[in-house]
Task: inverse folding
């Protein structure tokens, strides 16, 4: 993810220089050489506060891709605030997200702007949720949803990736969600039926993620806020089995992550472009790989709105997550409000998606071309809407 973020940042004309800092100095320098004359590489151990601050002081904005964030999110952001630099990260754990948001006042005093969780989910999903909620007169329930098949790692190493360790942590124990107008602790991997306008009822499964706890912070009228995943029944049975072993203490999170990584395999996975292509095939239409669904009221009647993206950056999970992180640099082209924010607390969705659209594969012109919005009060032929986005032969 860091590699995709760095490639994207180096290509922006408003970025003058880029420091690639990694635990492995030689790898950092080799990668920086690939980025061209703007970049240079150096060593950093984020567990060494003095060294970390020395590296942070060399930039205006810090892009943090050091995971898992439940270990490194709070210490790195604390060092950033103490150094007086701006910050964006990929934090996908709800626990440190809440801790980092509690650093809001410290960031204001330091004149620092920090954005927590600006990737695909969280990140793009948060902004899709805002677009969906703005369509309704009142929103009672918001769901941010992603396809597990779209989150495959690029490669499997000798130890599980931070992303997979995060995933297993959020699929075991208890997670925090918004229910009944308050935050509650519940078990993950619980079935939920969603009624997607234009597609119909489909099944999704709960998982711990920051969107569930950050969206109610900025939209306090929400009764329900959950993050959900879409996957197959065999995967669900596997997750239940591994989760039971972790929950009873018979297996560590790291071992579970290693097993899940091998089962899931590597590759690009399902993309928004695949969703567009699937509209031309017979049979029931699957849910999109990344979307938000808002339910509430419109003109005095029950209503719902779904918003999905029809394109994403190339590179599977790495590109879909790392490119939005770098796109967040655009908010610093003008003075930004100090403080610590989730994406929906500081970023205007259309402006950000206008930046993202040309970075997708294939490129889109702007946010309007990137998004597909379906509304329960409209008779939308979603297959026809998707077919109009198919590339011409």
Result:
């Amino acid at each position: 993810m860091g590699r995709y973020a760095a490639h994207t940042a180096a290509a922006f004309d408003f970025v003058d220089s880029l420091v690639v800092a990694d635990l492995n100095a030689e790898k950092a320098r080799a990668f920086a050489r690939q980025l061209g004359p703007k970049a240079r590489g150096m060593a950093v151990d984020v567990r060494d506060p003095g060294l970390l601050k020395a590296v942070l002081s060399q930039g205006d904005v810090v892009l943090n891709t050091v995971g898992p964030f439940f270990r490194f999110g709070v210490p790195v952001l604390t060092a950033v605030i103490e150094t007086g630099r701006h910050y964006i990260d990929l934090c996908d754990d709800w626990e440190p997200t809440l801790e980092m948001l509690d650093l809001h006042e410290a960031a204001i005093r330091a004149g620092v702007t920090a954005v927590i969780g600006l990737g695909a989910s969280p990140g793009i999903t948060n902004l899709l949720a805002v677009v969906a909620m703005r369509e309704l007169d009142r929103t009672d329930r918001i769901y941010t949803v992603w396809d597990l098949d779209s989150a495959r790692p690029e490669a499997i190493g000798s130890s599980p990736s931070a992303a997979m360790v995060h995933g297993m942590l959020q699929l075991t124990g208890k997670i925090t969600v918004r229910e009944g107008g308050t935050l509650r602790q519940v078990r993950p991997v619980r079935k939920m039926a969603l009624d997607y306008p234009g597609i119909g009822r489909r099944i999704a499964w709960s998982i711990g993620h920051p969107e569930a706890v950050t969206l109610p912070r900025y939209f306090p009228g929400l009764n329900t806020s959950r993050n959900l995943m879409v996957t197959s029944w065999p995967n669900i049975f596997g997750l239940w089995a591994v989760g039971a072993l972790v929950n009873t203490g018979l297996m560590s999170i790291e071992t579970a992550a290693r097993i899940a990584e091998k089962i899931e395999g590597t590759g690009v996975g399902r993309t928004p472009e695949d969703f567009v292509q699937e509209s031309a095939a017979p049979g029931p239409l699957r849910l999109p790989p990344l979307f938000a669904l808002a339910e509430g009221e419109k003109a005095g009647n029950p209503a719902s709105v779904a918003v999905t993206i029809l394109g994403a950056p190339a590179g599977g999970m790495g590109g879909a997550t790392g490119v939005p992180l770098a796109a967040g640099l655009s908010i610093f082209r003008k003075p930004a409000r100090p403080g610590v924010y989730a994406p929906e607390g500081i970023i205007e969705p259309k402006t950000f998606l206008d930046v993202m659209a040309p970075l997708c594969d294939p490129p889109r012109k702007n946010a309007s071309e990137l998004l597909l919005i379906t509304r329960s009060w409209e008779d939308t032929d979603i297959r026809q809407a998707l077919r109009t986005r198919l590339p011409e032969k």
